[in-house]
Structure formats: structure tokens, C-alpha cells
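hey can u check if this looks right to u? its 528 residues, i copy pasted from the old doc so theres a chance i mangled smth
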Amino acid sequence: MQRKKISLTVLATIVGLGTLLSGCGDQEKVKPAASSSPQSGANKFANKMKVTMFNQGTFNAAAPIPPREEDIQRQMLEKAVNIDLDMMIPQAGQATTKLNTLIAGGDIPDLLFLKSRSDLAQYYDQGVLADLTPYLDQFPELKKRFGNDSWDATSYMGKTIGVPGYDNVNGISRSFFIRNDWLKKLNMKVPTTPDELFEVMKAFTEKDPDGNGKNDTYGFIGGMNKEGNLQTYGFDSLMWMFGVNPPSAIEVKDNKPVFLFIDPKMKEALAYINKMMTAKVVDPDWVTMNTPDLLDQKLFKGKVGFMIRDARRLEPDYQQKMKEIGGEVPEWIVIPPMKGPYGDQIVERKSFQGNSWAISKKADKDKIIRILSMLEYLFTDKEAYPNFAYGIKGIHWDIVDGKVKNKTSELSKEVKEKYLWVDHYRMPRRGDDAEYFSFQNPKTAEAFTNNQKYVGLTLPGNLLTADPSDTLAADRTRFINESLVKFMTGKDPLTNWDNFLKTLDTKFDMQKYKDTAIKQFKDAGLIK
């Protein structure tokens, strides 16, 4: 059956074809154990079962595992489905080696947290993982917990071989920051379109908004990573105003793939950024901005009026850094993204669901059902949610005025360190749960909530696999990145756009890439 069209960004490291088909098979007529009461779940399973868990999904690999009598979350999971849970936490950077050693020795954990879809496909191909397709329909709440795009990411060769691991967080790290105090001084309004934004950036650069009588302010600064990729450093956010993005974002429209990095609208986006460069509204230091920390320093110094940064820069600790480094706390506000000429208004695209839970192929039917019951309880039980997402009641959270209140930010350093191990269980937290983050500045929570409206759908490109025979893939991507930068800066005039497309075809065999995408999208049911 054909799924809805979805959207994601290409992952060159993905191994194996992930399909959007939910496989069919004989369904085990067993009800899941998830319920609002852990003990009621235990009653459904008379015999206690041992379950081993390889948990590299912990949010703090350095935290020790506490004794069972102190581990409230572990007790809840065990009672929910009547299991004896043995959890392994691999040290940071050693998870793959540790897991491969266990697999080689035949000691495969029953439940494995995997960090990438490529790992999920690889271990399935090696015969390590079970096909979960025959069981998942018996766990409707678990299926509803994650969207289709997340489940699609755990599908492979027509089978569902994993359960989504945890929500990725969107709508916070790519916030549109602007100096509201500068807007007020220059008697300007918050920009809502690309043209208005350009006029604001120009005024921030030319009209001495900080009033020091010096020509030392700029309208914008972005950057690119050390590999020369423009994604995540600000310029790509400007491109989204035109509905396009650097390599390798692929959309599906009218039954065919649309490669956004060579779409005609990309030419318009590049012309806009080139206009910024020509008007000198971009801080020339952008060419050295290859880490988030460097961009933060620009934010703290307060000489740039518009940036793409994390909304948590509104939190008190960062505000203090602004005062220490720039001598003041500017009136930064987070605004909605500009609405582009084609109606696009995007903060960012929803992140690809790379992480997942998988179950050992050695697990029999009863153990698979028990583990899925535990996962359904972990991810869907409303009463249990704060105990896993926030921590221990009375310490990390409590009921205040009839509502759950996360108190983590109020804890002393000593108390936080004592309970670091609760990070092993935070996976159920929802990516849009502002209470989970325990924001100290209401403006941060407001920005986070407002940004959710502008998180675009994922693009289907993430479900594509790298073609081993495509020996020009890396060179092609490098050429695309370098060409976009040249067009942005004017080093290569946009009158050469057609030559750029021709070179992609003749020198870098773009058609091979297109043919691969078409074939895989057909196999996935995205196009006919």
C-alpha cells in the first residue's frame, strides 16, 4: 500500500533500503501490558522473565547504574510487565565495539538501542535482529505514539525491524534571533518577509544601532562546518525562505523527486544571499564560523542584529555570558521565520528518526511480546510519563497547583550529581515537551512553543540508500557545496547556473543519482 508522502534529508551513510511499507503477517493475538497501573500490567504475565537491555540511548553514559532497591524507574518497568531487567550502559565511544563483541560471542542482549538506521539494517542483515511486523498491531498505543515518518525509518525490506527510540528535538536550536532594542531605536518593525528582513539587516549594518558612533555592527552572520557544508549554520535557514536547502534535500512532488539543491528556486535563494553579501550586511567573519561556539561568541558580543541560534540562549546562564562578554544583555527576541515568496515559512525540517529499539532474533515469541509490552508502557503510560521524562517525584518533579512541575533547575549541584542515573530512562520525553527542559526564562518556553508551528515535515530523501556503485557521490556533494558558496559570494556569477547543472550531469553523473532515487522511491511506494 502507498503511504503518505513524507519529507527528510539524505543520509549518505544509510545502509539497506528502508521502505514505507508496513509488512503483513500472522498476528499474535496477545494484548499489550501497558496500562495506567504498573501492577495491573504485571498480572497479565504470571511468569517472571529476565530481559537484558543494551542501552546506548542513555542521556548520560557516565552515570553509574544504581542498585535495584534505589532504582525507582527500573522497579516500575519490572513491575509493569513482570520482568527482571538487566541493563547494560556502554561507555561513551565504546558502544559499537562492546555490542559487536557481545554479538560475536553469541551473547546478544534481548533489547538493543541503536543510534542509526544503518546499524539497524546492518544487524538485521547479519541475522541479529527479529522481524517485529507480526506483533506490532497488538500494540496500538505504541504505534500511535510515533508518527508514520518515525515508523518508516524503522522499516526495512518491507518489514518493521525496530521501534522508534526517542523523539528528536525540533523547534529550539534553529530559532530566529533578532535585536529588538535595535529595531526600536531605528523605528523598525519585526520583519515578516525576505525583503523586509533585508531592509532590517541593511539598517542594522549602516545606521549605528548601538549608538557608539562606529561602523562596527552587522545585520547577519552565519557559517559553514569544517567540511564546507552550509547546513545548520544559518545560511540554510535563509534558503528555506525559498523552499530549498543545500545537499542533499529531496522532495517528492507530482509523482517525481525534486532535488531541492538544484531546483530553480535555489537560484533565487542564492541571489538573495548574494545580495546580502554585496550590500555587506553579512559579518565578514562568517568564513571562519565553523563551530557553534564561535557563533555563540558573536551572539554574546552583541555586534550582530540577526542570527539563527538556539532558543536556550535566552536562559539566565547565557544572558550572564552576554553581560560578561558584551557588557550588556541585549534585548534579543525570537521571531517567526520569514514567509517566503512561495509561502514557505520554516524554522527547520523535522529531524530524521535514526535511533531505535531492536529485539534479538534469539528472543522467542513470548519474550518479544513481553519486551514490546514494556516499551508500550514506557512510552505511552500517562501516569508513568513524568517518572521517566523528568525523574523522581518529590526531587525532580512534583504536583504544583494540580499540574506537574519540573523542579530540576532548582536542584543543587550535589543533588543533581547524586541522581545522574535518571538520565538512563529519559527516552519517553516528548520532543515538544517544554516542561521537560525546565526552562528558567518564560521567553524560552514561549519561543520553543511558537517554533513548533514552523517545523516542516521531514523529506523522503533520508530513506534513500547510498549506491555502492556510485563512485562519484562524495565528489558530487563536495562540488555542489563549493558551487553554492561561490554563487553566494559572487565568486561565480549566477549567470553560470546552467553551466553548474551541466557540469553536474557530465562530470559528476547526476543522472545516476536521479535514477537511484527514482528506483528507491518506487520501491518505497512514494512514486508510481
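Residues 1-42 have pLDDT under 50 and may be disordered.
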